[in-house]
Amino acid sequence: MIEHPNEVVTKAIVRFVQIPGLAKKAALITLDNGFDYKKPNSFGPGGLKSLDEAITTATEAAPAFIAITGKPYIFCVGADITGIPFLTTREQALELGELGHRVFARLKNSTIPTFAFINGAALGGGLEVALHCHYRTVSTGAAALGLPEVAIGLVPGWGGSQLLPNLIGAPGAAQVILQNPLTQKVLRPKQARELGVADELFEAADFLESSLAWAAAVVNGAKTVDRPEVDKDMWDGVLFFAKQQLDERLHGAVPSANKALELLALAKEASFEDGTAAETQALADLIMGDESRASLYAFDLVQRRAKRPVGVPDKSLARKVTKVGIVGAGLMASQLALLFARRLQVPVVLTDLDQTRVDKGVGYVLSQIDKTVSKGRMDEGTAAKLRGLVSGSVDKSAFADADFVIEAVFENLDLKKQIWAELEKIVTPEAILATNTSSLSVTEMAADLEHPERVVGFHFFNPVAVLPLLEIIKGEKTDDATLATAFAVGRELKKSSVLVKDAPAFVVNRVLTRFTSEVFNAVDAGTPLDVVDSAFDPLGLPMRPIALLQLVGPAVAYHVGETLHAAFPDRFTDSPNLKKIVDAGLPLMVDDEINPEVAKLVAGGSAPLSADEVRAKALEALAEEIRLMLDEGVVAEAQDIDLCMVLGAGWPFHLGGVTPYLDRSGISEKVTGKRFLPKGVGSLPA
């Protein structure tokens, strides 16, 4: 018998309601785990049992119809994945899959009409239970709909892979089951209606009343639900194209994506019973595989650890921020201005060397606001308010009443020290001085100030609006009030903040630069650029090394490399070939291929490596560097490095972050003599 000792049981509560126009009452089943929206409904063994009992109660009363809905803001977000670690055998995994299929199938096979009133977020098994119903409505207030299982190393295992393609067709199903999870997207209510996932879309204010009235009209024949016939002629072609895209992007490294493709192919002709039986087998295989445990480890980091950063001072020490100053008006500074204005809703002022640069920076912010309005993502009232909050000046005295000033200028220590020396004479004694430096010492930057305790590192990642990580760096003299304020601001900006010691290049840039250093060691030894670039395909990383270098910018990477070479010359080499690339100024990629001119530029060397050797050396270097970082206390635990790499560098969920992969592959123990994580964390139990 499967058990989940810590399950927060989502109860299925039945009530009977009389609806005008129907002789019989309707049975309304409400899913509710007894908590507010912050702890969403989910299905564990107890929740499935409760739903099973509720369907029995409803069916025995022979109502006009049976409808299922959720508590405020939440329909159901799927299986209770916190119970997966308690599944220690394949038989238990099979039992969980079969239990969900058996209970949900009662709605599909019911002789009484069944409806799902999707009032809020419906993900995974939550959307699957809705798909089993004969009809579906969705609220305009539903935050998200989707089948995200592939992103956490699983597949839709309770009917979704079979029901969805036969409801909306292969193209839409491939988008929801494969493309959206792998790009971290979900469906909005309007999209769900347009795709055919839902039959009707109703306003949130009176969603339940409208849904009940609509269901009554369907039952008494006043309304007819027409669904277009699914085109099966294009089914195989769509899946062939999807496989090509997966192979190009992931190189076969994500088992859940491959299994999902197989199930979608099966759904074309297989009976529902055969298709769901295959789902159960696939789900059991994946649950008992390392990739799903690794994905769940990464998911837990993002959902839990990111919201409870380690080492943060008491939030009562945080100072109120009523105005923000930004030194610089370039692209990064302008992105920061937009973010601070949108999230903090306080005045934001940019400064730069001349009015032309200031105007360009402010103009960028205003254009982005206008673009957001044109796309329907912001109303004109909010936009007008934001426009009024953002201003620019060539005079730093505009910062006199700012509570939080951040600099985003060129990575030069003397320049940054000069800026802080000027500002300290202008701002109030309590104002926080933050630096967006990517590699320089926060301690050295503040060394000559009268109040070095109020300087803190505030390292964003580009693009600022997209990447959620914020490295908050504590200098040697940074005080608790400054740190508490920094973390409070990070929360308001909706960033996931990690406390980092003031060490060269901090976390993400140090790990990536060690990686890049090993890559260019191989290039310098004579390994062809294309061999180096494809060496990491078996990991399924989001970008190959050369494309990543182009995104970061060779000059930026070289500069960070210089900082780390100066600090650790034995491990971070000063690559002559990377210097050649920077000096040449050539684009690294042309039409998504390595620029042949760049390949020719770096050709040569007498000791080329194979792809396997390149990969092995780079991974061993990562293990060494991460162990040294932990020994130095750069972060509290290995989990923080994994969190930084997932959120700041896109390290894939299926690997679980860096350290679980290094542990599973035996590299950690080979290089450092021990694992980073206890056995069973980020992998199957020992």
UniProtKB/TrEMBL annotation:
Residue span(s) of domain 3-hydroxyacyl-CoA dehydrogenase C-terminal: 506-585
Pathway assigned to this chain's UniProt record: Lipid metabolism; butanoate metabolism; Lipid metabolism; fatty acid beta-oxidation
Catalysed reactions, semicolon-separated: a (3S)-3-hydroxyacyl-CoA + NAD(+) = a 3-oxoacyl-CoA + NADH + H(+)
Annotated signal peptide: none
BP GO terms, sorted: fatty acid beta-oxidation
Gene3D superfamilies assigned: 1.10.1040.50, 2-enoyl-CoA Hydratase, Chain A, domain 1, NAD(P)-binding Rossmann-like Domain
Keywords: Fatty acid metabolism, Lipid degradation, Lipid metabolism, Lyase, Multifunctional enzyme, NAD, Oxidoreductase
Domain of life: Bacteria
GO molecular function, one term: NAD+ binding
Domain 3-hydroxyacyl-CoA dehydrogenase NAD binding stretches: 323-502
Alphabetical list of InterPro entries matching this protein: 3-OHacyl-CoA_DH_NAD-bd (IPR006176), 3HC_DH_C (IPR006108), 6-PGluconate_DH-like_C_sf (IPR008927), ClpP/crotonase-like_dom_sf (IPR029045), Enoyl-CoA_hydra/iso (IPR001753), FA_oxidation_alpha_subunit (IPR050136), NAD(P)-bd_dom_sf (IPR036291)
CDD domains referenced in this protein's UniProt entry, alphabetically: crotonase-like
Coiled coil start-end: none
Similarity remark: Belongs to the 3-hydroxyacyl-CoA dehydrogenase family.
Protein name (Swiss-Prot/TrEMBL): 3-hydroxyacyl-CoA dehydrogenase
Native source organism of the sequence: Paractinoplanes tereljensis
